[in-house]
Write a structure and sequence with these properties.
Distance between the termini: 39 Å
Helix content: 40-55%
Strand order of the largest sheet: 1-3-2
CATH topology of the largest domain: Arc Repressor Mutant, subunit A
Number of helices: 11
CATH class of the largest domain: Mainly Alpha
Low-confidence stretches: 122-162
CATH superfamily of the largest domain: Winged helix-like DNA-binding domain superfamily/Winged helix DNA-binding domain
Mean pLDDT: 80
Number of domains: 2
Radius of gyration: 24 Å
Structural class: mainly alpha
Order of helices and strands: HHHEHHEEHHHHHH
Length: about 260
């Protein structure tokens, strides 16, 4: 491959956006971190972060000399060479050599994309898909204190099976004073959709406190007249941010920055 052939570099990228890159990196770390040295993790993180920001080479593609990587990670050149070899051997990156004329130039590194969750050392993944019915187990939801007395009495005596039975009780508690059963279930389907777009470690129940807090903030904004679009769309965007924050936190844990 020729040196500084950025069009060729971009063709090496297997990613449509940074979200796909982040997901691949997270899966790779989850599967391989136990076999990596601290320096290999640092190099992988450097290639991940820098390739996500460099539009010239394409997402997930980075061209650097060993000395440049060493300078940015704080390790020696020889340590960087060993780390790169480890990452290549673990199929976490692909290394392409470039030439300038007849002289070897820098290498081009591509972060390998994986399309399925891989568990470390053959262990089962912690991620669990939770269906709507599985997530609905719990006690009957209680209404907010500020709901009217008549509304409280009507929802307290409403049969759960016919109204809010298909959503978790904590979620129903937030929604019942404001929305009917159909809209509540629609909102919870938005929750599930946002959750499924992120490769999180745990089942949806583990994030229910953050989900409820997000919906409460959305309801507050709605009651204050701050929404410029429909509530369901506004809530979905907020939930996407909430799950992305959870994703970033779990990725940071894998990098050992907690």
């Amino acid at each position: 491959m020729k040196n500084a052939d950025f069009a060729a570099y971009k063709r090496l990228s297997p990613y449509k956006d940074v979200a796909q890159l982040n997901t691949a990196v997270r899966r790779q770390l989850y599967a391989n971190k136990h076999a990596l040295t601290t320096s290999a993790i640092a190099v992988y993180e450097y290639l991940h972060r820098s390739s996500a920001k460099n539009s010239a080479t394409g997402i997930g593609v980075r061209c650097d000399k060993y000395a440049t990587i060493a300078q940015n990670t704080g390790y020696s050149r020889r340590t960087i060479i060993r780390a790169i070899k480890t990452l290549v051997d673990r199929c976490m990156i692909v290394k392409h050599a470039t030439v300038r004329g007849h002289i070897d130039a820098h290498n081009v590194y591509v972060v390998v994309r994986v399309t399925a969750q891989v568990s470390p050392q053959g262990k089962p993944s912690k991620r669990r898909q939770t269906s709507i019915k599985q997530a609905s187990k719990g006690t009957q939801a209680r209404p907010f204190k500020h709901a009217t007395k008549a509304f409280k009495e009507s929802i307290e005596h409403a049969p759960m099976d016919a109204t809010f039975a298909h959503v978790p009780s904590a979620f129903a508690t937030v929604c019942r004073p404001f929305f009917d059963a159909d809209l509540t279930q629609k909102l919870y389907r938005r929750v599930l959709r946002a959750y499924e777009k992120h490769e999180l470690d745990y089942g949806i129940d583990a994030y229910m406190a953050d989900i409820v807090a997000t919906v409460k903030r959305c309801i507050y904004a709605w009651k204050r007249g701050r929404l410029r679009k429909d509530f369901a769309g506004y809530c979905y965007a907020a939930l996407m941010r909430t799950f992305q924050d959870a994703f970033n936190g779990e990725l940071a844990t894998l990098y050992g920055r907690t």
